[in-house]
From TrEMBL:
Enzyme category, top tier: lyase
Gene Ontology molecular function terms on file: myo-inosose-2 dehydratase activity
Domain of life: Bacteria
Protein name: Inosose dehydratase
Listed EC numbers: 4.2.1.44
Transferase in keyword set: no
Lyase in keyword set: yes
Domain Xylose isomerase-like TIM barrel: 37-299
Length: 304
């Protein structure tokens, strides 16, 4: 007889529009926002992220009403930034960030997920800039991210959690370590996405242990190693890789999530662990059964 894993008492499980095939504020191929809210609650989740700004209602009163009647709460908002370009992009960046931070705060959340800009277009594969930053760009990335962390904390009371992401400059274990070494832990934490980290050659359990004091948030996803090998061999951009199914339903891929969650529990801090199975675009009836099975699987890992 197998025993149940210990309850993950410090881990709060949620999901996100991404798991319903949502990548953009408005796209006819995406699940309508009302259906997403209905189905994410039906699947057994209590926490959600905002997703792309403008997908869910941006009026805090309306969004509060819509989430509350379904028993949902917001864990974080998400912003995209190109801070390695330095002060020249600050004004436009802040205009974008401040709108999302205000809604995130109004919904009672405490985190803002920060995703670096892509070095190649995630649809066409067009190379937008060099995939390797210069030393000067690394300095700008570190200093401007600290500035963002300070401003978001001071003005909105939110903590930024930077999300290493495929096809960005914060991707591999080496680049993640370099970024963390260059930034102030008081201002910049990490959103460790298990799927993206594996996609870029990393081991999430090792990352949690090595960067223990910097782990502020988790995204849970898995990659299909067979498809990933094809993607790497072909040099495929992230968007087409997702279309091919590189991000797969747990527990069929890597990394194994039970050891990741156990390592996160050992940090002895409260953490959100938000499921994000990239699958844009996808048929409208596909996400809910996957979400139900994934929630049941995570319960079997101790995530109540």
């Amino acid at each position: 007889m197998t025993s149940s894993p210990p309850a993950l008492t410090r881990i709060r499980i949620g999901s996100a529009p991404d798991s319903w095939g949502v990548w953009f504020p408005d796209d006819p191929r995406q699940t309508p926002w009302e259906r997403f809210l209905d189905e994410v609650a039906d699947a057994g989740y209590e926490w959600i992220e905002l997703g792309p700004y403008g997908y869910l209602p941006t009026d805090p009163a309306r969004l509060t009403e819509e989430t509350a009647k379904r028993g949902l709460r917001v864990s974080a908002g998400t912003v995209f930034t190109g801070l390695h370009h330095g002060p020249a992009v600050w004004e436009d960046t802040w205009e974008h960030v401040s709108r999302i931070a205000a809604l995130t705060r109004a919904m009672g959340a405490a985190h803002l997920v920060v995703i670096p800009s892509f070095w190649r277009d995630d649809k066409t594969g067009e190379v937008l800039e060099d995939r390797t930053l210069t030393p000067a760009q690394w300095r700008e990335l570190a200093s401007q991210t600290e500035r963002l962390g300070r401003e978001v904390l001071d003005r909105y009371g939110l903590r930024i959690v930077v999300h290493p992401h495929a096809d960005t400059h914060i991707d591999t274990p080496e680049n993640v370590a370099r970024f963390l070494d260059a930034t102030d832990p008081a201002l910049v934490s990490l959103c460790l996405d298990t799927g993206h980290y594996a996609y870029c050659g990393g081991d999430s359990v090792r990352a949690i242990e090595a960067f223990a004091e910097r782990i502020g948030y988790l995204h849970l996803k898995q990659v299909d190693p067979r498809i990933l090998a094809e993607v790497v061999a072909e040099g495929l951009p992230f968007g087409p890789a997702v279309g091919r199914g590189v991000m797969c339903e747990p527990p069929s891929g890597v990394p194994a999530l039970e050891p990741v969650l156990a390592a996160a529990q050992r940090l002895d801090v409260d953490l959100f662990a938000i499921v994000e199975q990239d699958m844009y675009p996808c048929p409208p009836d596909r996400p809910l059964p996957i979400a139900r099975r994934t929630r049941a699987y995570l319960r079997s890992c101790g995530a109540r």
